[in-house]
């Protein structure tokens, strides 16, 4: 099972703008990108972002050693959204470099717990994580029922210029 | 082995982009055959092709790649185009459908760039709605032959690029309800649809160049939105006059319409 996350570049740029707002004490911001899943004939499963919700300022908690720590309430809001909207969700944050972003060890360690919460809420949809840089993006998606993510998901940014990305590779 | 050294100045990553980017072409005759040919020459490797028709003699004056033997054998146009690609690319991935585009919509969803070379306004509107639902970059090409005031003919072509979030064909005044109503009233009376191979070639070239610009970001100078017209009489190409009334952003398509159709509870 492969995944392709395809979004308008305008959408991703709006998310970037939100994630670069300063916070009182967090070093980075977090948001949730909500997506519809589309069934493709003979291809990857398509995830199509349609909404974005930033984590509210009050839902960040001080914690040393991480860029941002968000509360259970933030996760619960995302869980309520995907339950109500029958949607997939991608935990989203940004590393402010140019070029391919790379998931940190903290990201990799913490995602399974967050994704498990989403899987428990909406077990019939894939969920995962989206990491943006200033001009690229990378995603890890957990298929339905999977304990491990699919590593070589494509992220397509549709606009001009168009971007085609997968972990470790920029295609366009 | 690929040797794209003479186009490497476009972008060192273009080769990889062309391998990853899936392109769809709807309509494989006048405009579509030019587009497929150029995409294959560039080095694109992943295709979804669809056209319901078979090759006839009347197509030979405008359909690149088609032969007299194809017309005599009534070869499906998708087979002619698949053969053409395989003659230029060593390992292409081709999904070819002999049918209306909607019959292969499940495959077209995977396309990142979609070219439409269709005859009707209604088909253009439907394909654009489809492209918006699945966040696909749509590049539409077409040509018209109309009576000029001096009694002669005016031959014109156009390219319209419809990107998610950007102005759509309705925003640009390229499609409106009057046109759709007239077309519906004249259903079945379309008569012959004049085509000129060289005009098809000009607009198809512009469409493919636009796709390459999307993938490489090379020029950064192409106007957005992209609505180009070609006047064969004066041999001039430029921005369509309707561009001056284009509104942005597009309010015709809502993000709630994204993705496959689904049941939504009432209330």
Description:
The complex is a heterodimer of chains A (172) and B (267). With 172 residues, chain A is of the alpha/beta class. Chain A has a single domain (3-170), classed as Cytidine Deaminase, domain 2 (3-Layer(aba) Sandwich). Chain A has three helices and nine strands; from the N terminus they run E-H-E-E-H-E-H-E-E-E-E-E. Chain A has helices at residues 9-19, 72-85, 105-121, and strands at 3-8, 30-38, 45-54, 88-94, 127-132, 137-142, 154-158, 163-166, 169-170. In chain A, strand 2 and strand 3 form a beta hairpin. In chain A, helix 2 packs across helix 3 (105-121). The mean pLDDT of chain A is 93. With 267 residues, chain B is of the alpha/beta class. Chain B has a single domain (11-245), classed as NAD(P)-binding Rossmann-like Domain (Rossmann fold), CATH 3.40.50. Chain B is 31% helix and 19% strand. Chain B has helices spanning 14-20, 30-42, 68-72, 77-88, 105-108, 121-133, 177-185, 197-216, and strands spanning 22-26, 46-50, 93-97, 113-116, 137-147, 153-162, 226-231, 236-239. Chain B has an eight-stranded mixed β-sheet, sandwiched between helices. The model of chain B has no long low-confidence stretch (mean pLDDT 88). The A-B interface holds A 4, 6-11, 35-44, 46, 48-51, 86, 154, 156, 158-162, 164, 166, 169-172 and B 11, 13-14, 16-17, 19-22, 95, 104, 106-107, 109-110, 112-113, 134-137, 163-166, 213-217, 220, 222, 224, 249, 255-256, 258-260, 262.
Main features:
heterodimer; A: 172 residues; alpha/beta; Cytidine Deaminase, domain 2; nine-stranded mixed sheet; 9 strands; 24% helix; B: 267 residues; Rossmann fold; eight-stranded mixed sheet; globular
Largest interface: A-B, 36 and 40 residues
> Which percent range describes the beta-strand content of chain B?
15-25%
Q: Report the principal-axis shape of chain B.
A: globular
User: Biggest sheet of chain B: strands side by side, in what order?
Assistant: 3-2-1-4-5-6-7-8
Number of strands of chain A: 9
Oligomer: heterodimer
**CATH architecture designation of chain B:** 3-Layer(aba) Sandwich
* Backbone CA Rg of chain B: 18 Å
Looking at the structure, the CATH topology of chain B is Rossmann fold
Q: Estimate percent helicity of chain B.
A: 25-40%
CATH fold call of chain A: Cytidine Deaminase, domain 2
Instruction: Indicate the overall shape of chain A.
Output: globular
- Helix and strand pattern of chain B: HEHEHHEHEHEEHHEE
Low-confidence stretches of chain A: none
What structural category do the secondary elements of chain B indicate?
alpha/beta
Total DSSP helices of chain B: 8
Flag low-confidence runs of chain B: none
